[in-house]
Amino acid sequence: MSKCAWVTLTTNDAYSLGAMVLAHSLKRVGTVHDLVVMITPTVSEAMRSRLREVFNLVQEVNVLDSKDATNLAILARPELGITFTKLHAWKLVQYEKCVFLDSDTLVIQNCDELMEREELSAAPEVCWPDCFNSGVFVYRPNEATFTSIIEFAAKNGSFDGGDQGILNSYFSQWAHTDITKHLPYTYNTAAFAVYSYLPAFKEFKNKIKILHFAGKVKPWLLNFNSETKQASIPPMFTHCGDFIQLWWNIFCDNVHQRLSDQMAGLAGALAQVRLGEPRSSEQEAYEASMRRQCWESGNIDYTGKDSFDNIWKKIQETLEMKPEAPAKSADDDNDKSSVTPPEIEIKATAQKLIASNVTTPKPARSTNKPTPQPPARQKSKKSK
């Protein structure tokens, strides 16, 4: 067993997809250190068996939740409360030094030199550089440290409701005490365009060592063409489209064949998809189900199947479908009133909407309203 390890965490089968791609990305760049994944009881047994084939150690841990709904609401990310569970990483005392990696990271180049850094080494949070991002950090496992952080959290809470807030408060000296603990940003580069300084991303792209898909958009939630094995790249990710495709290449080459329909959610659905083959009606149904999950997570293929033209075409096809005529009753025969069929009403409404959008817009109303005039005074009877 190596004295050092790469550690990640997964709390369900969908995030386990990311964990497995992460593990294979580490193997792809030739790491010499162990791979460890911490899992919670919500990971299915089918997924656990596959994780054991990839990682040197699969360690089940209990769920730690910050219970801090107020601060998590500020972030609009209530699911981050469970990220406190990553604090269990300090209990892996069989290792001398570890690097924690979120399961939505992707290792691009060998980073074994990180094991030479000291606790707590991390890269700056791009939104607030005096804080570090807790998606990648170097630490020393220690039971006493684990207990100390938990006690600190119970007493002081987390300023963002998640693990990043509590770790930045606990390791508050990181910002100003020892600059050697500031990792270069290339060890934890945010993929999402909103988080990135795009000119620098393009300039130093070849130096990126670890890419972090921080935020709600995850590679496994993006639209993917199983026949061509090509991912659909959202507009905000065009600058790192090749990295997204790399994630899917690793998935296709190393992960897909390990999936089972006994797995939960997206992982189970992906197990049914056949790669590199013409899509059957059954497979198209599976992909439609996955696309719906992408929609629900906010990842919409605006330039592909979910484009406006395709959506409008579907609406028109639906309007053209004539519902079956209901069986006539005696009352229907006696009713001589004229009733407009519902499909005609729908078409008429749609046509009105189209016409209202293509006609010349009316000029905007003036905001300068005329000053109301006081009513004319009536002459008094006593006036001359």
User: Can you write the helix and strand succession as a string?
Assistant: EHEHEHEEEEHHEHEEEHHHHHH
CATH topology of one domain: Spore Coat Polysaccharide Biosynthesis Protein SpsA, Chain A
Mind telling me which CATH architecture of one domain this is?
A: Alpha-Beta Complex
Overall geometric form? globular
Q: How many H/I helices?
A: 12
Provide the spatial order of strands within the biggest beta sheet: 3-2-1-4-7-6
Give the overall pLDDT as a whole number: 80
State the helical fraction: 25-40%
Number of strands: 11
Distance between the termini: 115 Å
Task: Indicate the structural class.
Answer: alpha/beta
Strand content: 5-15%
- Outline the low-pLDDT stretches: 77-81, 299-304, 379-384
Radius of gyration, taken over Cα atoms and rounded to an integer in Å = 29 Å
Main sheet attributes: strand count, strand direction, barrel closure: 6 strands, mixed
Please identify which CATH superfamily of one domain we are dealing with: Spore Coat Polysaccharide Biosynthesis Protein SpsA, Chain A
Class of one domain, according to the CATH hierarchy? Alpha Beta
Key traits:
384 residues; alpha/beta; Spore Coat Polysaccharide Biosynthesis Protein SpsA, Chain A; three-stranded mixed sheet; 11 strands
Characterization of the model:
This protein is 35% helix and 13% strand. The chain is of the alpha/beta class and 384 residues long. The protein is globular and about 70 Å long. The chain contains twelve helices and eleven strands. It starts with a strand and ends in a 26-residue tail after the last helix. It has a domain of 213 residues: Alpha-Beta Complex (Spore Coat Polysaccharide Biosynthesis Protein SpsA, Chain A). The longest helix has 17 residues. The strands form three sheets. The chain has a six-stranded mixed β-sheet with strand order 3-2-1-4-7-6, sandwiched between helices. Strands 5-9-8 form a three-stranded mixed β-sheet. Strands 10-11 form a two-stranded antiparallel sheet.
